[in-house]
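Project standup — Tuesday

K.O.: blocked on the structure for the chain from last sprint. Re-posting the sequence here as requested.
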Amino acid sequence: MSILEITRGESPLVLGLPHTGTEVPDRIEDALNETGRALADTDWHIHDLYDGLAEGVSTVRTRIHRYVIDVNRDPGGASLYPGQNTTSLCPLTDFDGRDIWREGQAPGAGEIARRKAAYHAPYHAALAAELERVKARHGFAILYDCHSIRSEIPFLFEGRLPDFNIGTNSGATCAPRIEAAVAAICESAEGYRSVRNGRFKGGWTTRHYGRPQDGMHAIQMELAQSTYMQERPPWTYLPEHADRLRVHLKTILETLIRWRPA
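H.V.: unblocked you, prediction finished:
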């Protein structure tokens, strides 16, 4: 069974879905401890939240869980946020800083290399192919990387996270008008809070593909999970909350689809 789910649209917009998967191969699951097997750090329901919002969108999703390997991390192992708590390419802890592997079962260098080849590389090969395909059609491409996270995680950040967290690596990964357009929608969304390049400035995916000078634009959206779901087990999707949020997400996607270089 393929670990990837890919849909191909004809617009310039490609959605990346790196953290919604919950599949863990049996051999790897056996090495996880009880904390790890809870899969608490999933971007729960994100593929459902964005489903059907706009026509012509391409999507690339991996079904593999981030505890196996995090496809939004530098394959070389460099930290996205030096000096701050974060999780690694093959995480050793969850977002609360708790060990996720049974004693002596954390992946070593050889196992990490195997997972990069089996899971990380195929995801990015597929994502790169879709971006190049739509860029060939339109002369540019926009990657919108879809994420969510609990709104309060003291191990990673202080206080409560805003609802919309826009990441462009401080403006480096997309045209200024793209960032401004998305920010304007978020800032005008009644009842929601937003921030640009706050705690989450864009993961490795956004930073790797975002080359606006080459017609390749990338922007990350990290949503606070409180906007659409229950943030504790059983991680229930809350349709009333989600539908209210989807109105604004639809506006964002449709705006990006219509965007053209000046």
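K.O.: great, moving the ticket to review. Residues 4-258 form a domain with the Aminopeptidase fold (CATH 3.40.630.40). Helices lie at 26-29, 34-37, 46-50, 109-138, 176-187, 204-209, 239-258.
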